[in-house]
Automatic annotation (TrEMBL):
SUPFAM superfamilies: lambda repressor-like DNA-binding domains. It comes from the Bacteria. The lineage of its organism: Bacteria, Bacillati, Actinomycetota, Actinomycetes, Kitasatosporales. This is HTH cro/C1-type domain-containing protein. It holds the Pfam family HTH_31.
Amino acid sequence: MLSLIEELSDPLSQVGDATMVDPGPVDPYQARLAELGLAIRDHRVAKGWTQAHLGKKVALSNTAIAHFEAGKHVPRRDVARRIDDAMEAGGRIWNLRDELDDNPDAKLVQRVFGYESRAVRIRHANGVIPALLQSPEYERAIIEKNIPFLGGDAEDKLRHRARRHEILKRPDPPAFSAVLTEAALYAVIGSRSIMRDQLLGLIASSQRPGIEVRIAPFEGNADLVQVMGEFSILDLPTGRTVVYASSGVRGLLVTKQEAVAGYTGIYDQLLTRVLDPEASRTLIRRVVRETYSEHHYT
């Protein structure tokens, strides 16, 4: 793969995200990526252009265009914009590319932030520390770790996270509850020192009014990581509920109430398999003491 990239006059590492992982053939991210590639091909064919002709129009090689159309690489945002403009696609190619992104200016991210900001209750399930309860050091470490897979600008994402943190700091914050697996307490993000501070911060956050953190212990829950996935249930002041679910490296906004009911049902089932808030804090304290005490990383 590297030898091919190095041979290109416009290296794919400079125009597309060649390092994105393959979440698997059934992942909706791959379906959307295939749809983007097909849209590029369809618009190109409709204009009677070869891959080389399109490449010339947007200052890329025909090989780069072929990789985009085959879904092997994701065009950078600016590259997708150039392709859309060159083929007069009316924003279709750009919109498909935008849906693959987790940058703060992506439409999906903005929509979710809008719902999250207005929510009166947030219920969250995840295998890592919830974003709204992450320490600055932890979230920087996890964002920077994911840049090779998700692309984008780390500083932009951190600024967006800072805006999200304000949701729980406002005078009328939403009720917030989170279910996470015990594995999240042991998954070292950044360093052991960062994990210690993060877990101590998680304990402190869980003692604030309106915030509840509950842990699903290893015992009796070996299958839970596969079952629970990652999602946030957002109850809006209108009485409507929406869900943001993460699948692979792409998020999905669920607004159809039948589908939303499925997620709320899963969350209710999760609550039958987790520790109560005080027992959860006790477990977190034990993990800090046994795994992240200062002598473990000094």
